[in-house]
Amino acid sequence: MAEIDWHARADQLQCDGRALIAGVRTASASGETFEKRSPVDGRVLAQVARAWAADVDAAVASARAAFADGRWADQAPARRKKVLQRFAELILSHGEELALLETLDMGKPVAQSLAVDVAASARCINWYAEAIDKVYDEIAPTGPGALALITREPMGVIGAIVPWNYPMIMAAWKIGPALAAGNSLIVKPSEKSPLTALRLAEIALEAGLPAGVFNVVPGFGHEAGEALALHHDVNAIGFTGSTRIGRKMLEYAGRSNLKRIFNELGGKSANLVFADFNDLERAAQTAAGAIFYNQGESCNAPSRLLVEASIADEFVARVVALSARYQPGDPLLADCAMGAIVDEAQLNTVLGYIEKGHGEGARLVAGGMRMRDASGGFFVAPTVFDGVKNGMTIAREEIFGPVLSVLRFDSEDEAIAIANDSPYGLQAAVWSSSLDRAHRVARKLKVGTVHVNQYDDDDITVPFGGTGQSGNGRDKSLHAFDKYTELKTTWIRLQ
Fold first, then answer.
1. Which of 204, 121, 226 is nearest to 169 (CA)?
2. pLDDT value of residue 495
3. Backbone CA torsion sign across 103, 202, 226, 56
4. Distance between CA atoms of 58 and 49, rounded to whole angstroms?
5. Fewest beta carbons less than 10 Å away: which of 131, 317, 427, 475?
6. Is 379 exposed, middle or buried (0-12, 13-18, 19+ CB in 10 A)?
């Protein structure tokens, strides 16, 4: 197969930034737009509809009408299944277009967008399609005098507010179970990466999803996002984003209709490497790959590397040497390993944390600077700090960039204490050749997922989410249905 000339395709690409409400692309009610530029090279991608409360009102009215008349919720499960399966197929058939949009929109390498983001999004939608007619309701063990039915029912209108780091995948994790359960949906993508969500909604229409069931309102969080979270006719919000905004989501629920809020928030994941692990090169490769993948813009990135002191010098040297593989390159070339930071504001945030690392006494051993300035895009070198203490800012706060903090420990108890000394609790990893130690440490780590002798192995069948200030939401797996359905008990007295 001939290699794709992504630059030529990018030059020919025409992006529609209008909202999608009631099955129709539409300008914002105010007529306002905002300019979306690519972090890859600064090109203007689209003038995107700047949605406000009036646009959210229209989208919610569309979704509520679709739910009330049952055009989707009342379809037989087998019929909904076929539509979502077709939706997944069309995501794959539009894969190259979606991958290019994703890369130009938020900066990741296009090869990763195609192989990972497109494929995972389609797989997610298809998995929930398959689950539709395989999830059974219950009969309670009430005794012979009654029949108590426990049934799952769609909640109604769901708001999904998704982040900019994995725009398609994060959207799919919410679209899949919400639609499979029979709800109507409004997606508010990040203003930093709105374009693939808009195309996904169009593709869903092409697959046969009724108009009004899936709406997209692009805009800013403090405008469209806030209006959606405050809306009295929205039954639940699935939110993925920062802990700061997650707090606001809870506030908005209290100020409105006490809607359900499911927050999947930030992380500062610890990667614990013990001296007894028998393949330090593989552990080092994983440590580097996991932090520098997606430019470090991952909530579950293992940005705290905890290494047993007896092997720390050797291990850090391995990671530093491997960081050279992740020098930022042109995201539209197939061999690019690390792409662009999403925008200038995030670039400055990352560079600001690097300065704080210097100022607080951490030792820079790799990277630490902006690169590829002449491209017009926003690129940061893979960065490693050694000699980090857990009280330093770069060890406490989520950076969302390719910055790794190395912390050393002398004992298992000390490693656990350092790992748990964080307001976050999303993920962690344990590297040890001792099965006893792996189990023991995993049980003591206060996180939603513990990886053992790997990092970020993944499957749609397992839940994703955290504890503490990493939130309470669980995406993926059958557990996601808990977010988008209500349990109803029907009690029948038997004569």
1. 121
2. 83
3. positive
4. 14
5. 317
6. buried
Task: Of 289, 244, 288, give the one whose Cα is nearest residue 263.
Answer: 244
pLDDT at 482: 94
CA distances from 403 to 127, 293, 311, 366 (A): 34, 11, 21, 9
The stretch 48-59 carries a mean pLDDT of 98
Catalytic residue among 102, 226, 264, 297: 264
pLDDT digits (tens, 9 = 90+) for 144-177: 999 999 999 999 999 999 999 999 999 999 999 9
Q: Is the dihedral of CA 186, 187, 190, 195 positive or negative?
A: negative
- Strands of the sheet containing 485-493, edge to edge, are 138-139, 146-154, 485-493
Q: Is the pLDDT of residue 417 over 50?
A: yes
Catalytic residue among 102, 223, 299, 398: 299
Which residues, other chains included, contact 28 with Cβ-Cβ below 8 Å and sequence gap of 6+? 19, 49, 50, 51, 52, 54, 55, 219
pLDDT mean over 1-20: 92
Q: How many CA atoms lie within 13 A of 153 on its CB side?
A: 14
pLDDT tens for each residue of 228-286 = 999 999 999 999 999 999 999 999 999 999 999 999 999 999 999 999 999 999 999 99
